[in-house]
Specification:
mainly beta, Proliferating Cell Nuclear Antigen, four-stranded antiparallel beta sheet, 12 strands, 11% helix
Length: 188
Amino acid sequence: MLSSANPMDLRGATTAHIAFNGLGSDFELMLEERGIISVCRLATFVPEAPVDLDFARFPVIQQLIIRSEWLRDAFNELDPTSEAVGIAISSTAPYLSITTVGENGSTEMTYSKDERVLDSFFCSEEQENRYKLGLILKCKYALALSDKTKIRVNQRGFLSFQFMIPTDADVSFVNFLYAPLVHADELG
């Protein structure tokens, strides 16, 4: 801000100094106003290579529609001390299996192709993948509101949940996409 007495008087002006010395260094912002200096330093990091999240680029090898009440019950039984949840879809019984192993023991829920549980089922290739449990559980609110859930797994092991949520006017869909912790080919 310039002084009204002398337009070139910068004593009341705020000055800013921004510094960034490249990847991995702190981003620094320094403000000075009327002799008071404020400094803000933000730590930065070098990210890993981005994950290709294009689900549609690889073929869907497993797809089913499950009544959400069954999936809610399964999620409520998962051991919260587990780091990962295993999801396996097979062309033979059990058709859907959800497992965790944690400090409190192991949990396994299996589902048949019973029409009271699964509305549709497709499996061209059997595959079991593990996903970070803490991330999977982020969908619990959408799951709680939904009537049915479409579960799809593509050839790379990426998992898609699509929740069908009834509304007053129509039906809404909420989607979640998860990358596997370890792809089935790497399980050894």
